[in-house]
Amino acid sequence: MLKQVQTQKQHHTILPQQIELLNLFHLNTLELDQRIQDELSENPVLEESSAQDEAIGDKFSKDMVQDFQNWEEYGYDDIPDYKTEYKNYLATEKLPEKPMADLPDFREDLKKQCRFLSIPEEKVYLFDFLIDSLNESGFLELDLEDLASEISFKNGSWVEAGELQEIIETIRGLEPPGIGCRTVQEYLLIQLKGMNTKQPDVKMAIRILEDHFQELRNCNLEKLKRELGLEEDEIKIVLILLSHLKTRPISQPTGTSPVNLSVLPDFTILDEGDKLEVALFRQRSANLHISQSWMEMVQNATQNATIDKSAKQYMRSKLSSAQWFISAIQQRESNMLKIMNAIVELQYEYFKYGDILLLQPMKLKNVADKVGVDISTVSRLTCNKYAETSFGTILLKNLFTEGIVNQEGNNISNKVIQSIIEELIGKEDKNHPYTDRQLVNILAERGYTVARRTVAKYRELLHIPVAQIRALWDQKETVPQ
To answer: What is the mean pLDDT of the chain?
Structure first.
């Protein structure tokens, strides 16, 4: 039996142009350059001018008088030879910028390894996306559900988290082994299972990581010995074995920072006395424009009835696409400057003096409310973005921190606590390192009331092991065979 039912519901639809705009917000400087080059090659209506082109245009402008100089005037002038020879050398103040070193990236190496696997063509982009999502240490910190949603959003096709899990298992089998692990626990287990698992110390280490990792992380050795029935010497042998394992698949070069080596900043912050000036490292919207010849062609085609309808539609669509793209780049740069100015205003003392202890607690919502945009816009325009300052290149993501109230009632950033913990451990007696409880007491003496579990969490974020393992690192013992 047929029947008609009337219902009322709310439905939210995101336009394709809005999705494309959000994707542009997410790009950093290098990715935006590539995106603009792709658009220039695909759309003949869009053109880009450079400062060099403008200089050449000014040089040969009709308004300027060009003096004619024949060979007699040029060959028999009175200019000394040393002056013309000197021009073959670059002046010190006009030296070209030092090119950025092309350092090998482990992600590119992983992608090359994937090409030798029998991967279906339609799944190659999933492998590349997950490899690009790895952090600088080689861990996959992002949740698979979030990654699946982001991939589905960008490519317009639904991807399940279970499918990504299978791909991650394949990536972990590449070189270096364990790349793509979610946690340090997973990475340690992979290293142990690659050893001779029949050895008693290896077998016991695997059991501790699988069943008693929380006790190991909290360094509750007495409970471990009691539950596993181990003696003092036996638990010491297992801890020595664990201390010789790597804690991350990718190790950065000593004394170097990946930010300063291979990252092009998106902002520059200059100290101009009492004021901090914020500027884009590379502004692109001013150089993009519509081709004048194409504008005339579209106008003529509109008035010409003999031109095919599909050709007219093609020219109009390309013109509309170019106009939207320029407008999107302008909107991106305008919002970036507004957001960066708001961040500098909220963190003025930090950007002025470069002291991490001056960093104030700040959330995405604080910036969004100050600028008057949505939180998602702030998130995308600060994601993977870097700012060049007088004290180095910083990642904007690190500026967003939670707050902790000290004994004086002031709200301070948790980055301050992490910095102090790292400083204390760096200066500790290597034979008698500080425990988490001792660190709590030292912080309390400095006016910071922090719980022990909070200290343990910050220590793990800094990739610093517990005191007992730090002490074993300095012992000259070898791993038993």
So the answer is: 77
